Amino acid sequence: MKKIIVTLTLTLFGVAISGVSGAQTKEEKIAQAVLPLPEELRAGAAVYEYNEAGQRLILRGGSNHVECKPRDENGFTSCTSKKTAANRDFSAKLAASGLEGEELQAAMRAAEEAGEVEPMPFGTMFYRLYEKDDRIQLLWVVFLPNATADELGMSLASQRDNSLAGMGRPWMMREGTPSAHLMIPINGTALSNAGGAPERMDTKAITDLVVQGTLPLPEDLRDGATVITYDESGERQVLREGNNMIECRARDEASGFTRCYHKSLGPETDLRAKLAAEGKSNEEIGTAVTAARDSGVLATAPIGSIAYRLYEEDDRLKLLWVLRLPNATSVELGMPTGSQRDNSLAGQGLPWMMREGTPAAHLMIPINSTELSNKKMM
């Protein structure tokens, strides 16, 4: 867990001591600083900046669990959990003393080893805004230290170009390192890059179950995914054996969902299908699955793993990715909890946490503006 904070601070958000925000009034700085956040967090967010000595200057005290720094000299505005404040403050003071690059990283490592700063929790959320269209404009980032794409079922293929065109999907960067993280470009909002897919795909016209079954995935994971279905008795039918870490269940006609997930969840999916074929209720199935997990019969999906879901009607969120964060809370990770269902149906939903503090806690990530997404409502 070493090198975590300084690496992310320097490479994602910088530790600029002074910047262009100095020409703004205090009120203007505050209003601009909170823009990367969902509306529910803006009014209660603390706002701060650093002076040339690396000292924190409070522009507004906050009442919730996030804080924001106004636009810096590189054009970035950033927000994150208050729990990482001490770490960022320490980094800013080191930078103000003249340290940079490897020297600064070494100093931060030493501070962590000495217990002077604490590493941030796995799953911490960062919010970043850039107000020109030559970069991803609205970007949220989930911190996943030392995780790999295979462990979590994620794509490593950069979505930068798609994001600049307003239709990017999330992807992992720096896998296996202390600074591993999930990039979540936010499409479809007033602060996002303009664009989006010009047309929506007619997925119902796709009769090949293998092709249809892999649609929820990013393109680089589709060819290697295992694709299955179940017969009326709940028995698994393998339509294609894959060679990567993903398994997909082709469209379930009863629910209308197409789902993809880490292969480690295959036995759980089999159990659910078998119990459903026996006529068990959703509550009974949930109880049985929980008992099987608790007894060790079923494996638990890795923390931070992603599940992918596609729905082909307009009355639900159509393309949804879900990040598993068992027992995590919004305060711990700096996440919002206000439902974005209605915004998502209108093609401009933001991620939000559900079931915080429970084993089923997760981050809902609606994917806007792609050929599979809900159509944006103007």
Write the topology of this structure.
Blueprint: H1 4-13, H2 26-33, H3 39-42, E1 46-50, E2 56-60, E3 66-69, E4 76-81, H4 85-96, H5 101-113, E5 125-130, E6 138-143, H6 149-152, H7 160-164, E7 171-173, E8 181-185, H8 209-213, H9 219-222, E9 226-230, E10 236-240, E11 246-249, E12 257-262, H10 266-277, H11 282-294, E13 306-311, E14 319-324, H12 330-333, H13 341-345, E15 352-354, E16 362-366
Parallel strand pairs: 1-3, 9-11
Antiparallel strand pairs: 1-2, 3-4, 4-5, 5-6, 6-8, 7-8, 9-10, 11-12, 12-13, 13-14, 14-16, 15-16
Q: Report the mean per-residue pLDDT as an integer.
A: 92
Name the beta content range.
15-25%
Task: Tell me the radius of gyration.
Answer: 22 Å
What is the number of beta strands? 16
Low-confidence stretches: 1-7
If strands are numbered along the chain, what order do they take across the biggest sheet? 2-1-3-4-5-6-8-7
First-last Cα distance? 45 Å
How do the helices and strands follow one another from N- to C-terminus?
A: HHHEEEEHHEEHHEEHHEEEEHHEEHHEE
